[in-house]
Amino acid sequence: MRILFNIDLNFSVIEKIKKVIVQKYPDIIIIDQYNKSFPNNSILFSRSKVGKFSPDFIQILNCKIMSNDLKNLKSRNILVSSISPLIANQFAKSINDYILSKNIRKSDLKVGLIGLGEIGSSVANKLISNNMEVYYHDITTPIHSRINSQIRRISLDLLISRCQIVSLHVRPGPTSIPLISNRELSLMMEDSILINLSDEQLIDNSCISEIEEMKVDNRYISFQNFSNNFDIKSCRDGLVIEFITKNLFSFMEGELPKGLVDYIDFPRTGDPSFWSSKMVNI
Q1: Which among 213, 127, 126 is positioned nearest to 164, based on CA atoms?
Q2: Yes or no: domain 2-84+233-252 corresponds to CATH 3.40.630
Q3: Residues 13-58 pLDDT 10s
Q4: Out of 107, 174, 256, 278, which residue is the most buried by the measure of CB atoms under 10 Å away?
Q5: What CATH number should be reported for the domain whose range is 87-227?
Q6: Helix (H) or strand (E) run with residue 195 in it
């Protein structure tokens, strides 16, 4: 088997990862630089675009991957895993603590999550445990284990117009660049809050001035607002090493790795979320 690590770590951390791998599998071939040779029973550490390689499994060291690369990899049946499970609880706790700090009566509060993947579902479960009313929108039907019976699925328009808190948990892709434009902002209530811990590409350039005004009013929250709440150092060192090496060993032993990236493209027309503001232009 051939495995690719798409790396964004310093040299010392990479060396620690290699050491753990070699201790368990001394016969594995470690490749630091791609020279048109990617033999079986090898692991390649690369900072190049993942789409140019043909491994059996790719482990990325973040939660982001371009949709074109993902589509390419899907066509070749290549599994891709992110570190979403490692950071999902931190995202959930940060968003939950932020919402609680707003002192909004829970009986009046509606929270809308756009995207119910690994992180979105963790956020939903955390909010539900604190008796909040949670809605979600996704362009495909989420994995069954992520669907909590207390979360109601509604269209994008309804979610944006009904919820005081709207939180984005989607990757950049054909139906999400952009996801929020002036049209969507016009549907939001005057005092509602938009949380975007995903990617700034989801915001249309035409509404940058409106977003800046929301920032001034503390109604647009980005990753920078939460960065102090994330234990980045530990995630970039010990926790990451432990997570990705366990993930690697699981795959090598014939088990599904954690944090598999969902291959999401345009939904089937029968999907109930097809009829939303991003899919129809009437």
Answers
A1: 127
A2: no
A3: 888 899 999 999 999 999 887 766 788 999 988 877 666 778 999 9
A4: 278
A5: 3.40.50.720
A6: strand 193-196
- Measured CA to CA, the distance from residue 90 to residue 122 in angstroms comes to 9
DSSP 202: G
- Alpha carbon distance 46, 183 (integer Å): 40
**87-227 has the same fold as 2-84+233-252:** yes
What does the block give as tokens for 275?
């009829």
The pTM assigned to this predicted structure is: 0.84
Side chain identity at residue 140, one-letter code? T
Q: What are phi and psi of 249, to 5 degrees?
A: -65, -35
Q: How far apart are CA 81 and CA 83, in angstroms?
A: 7
Q: Judge whether 233 and 241 are in contact, CB under 8 Å.
A: no
Dihedral, 186, 188, 189, 193 alpha carbons, nearest 10: -130
Residue given tokens 């963790």 in the structure block: 122
Distance between CA 19 and CA 6 in Å, rounded? Answer: 17
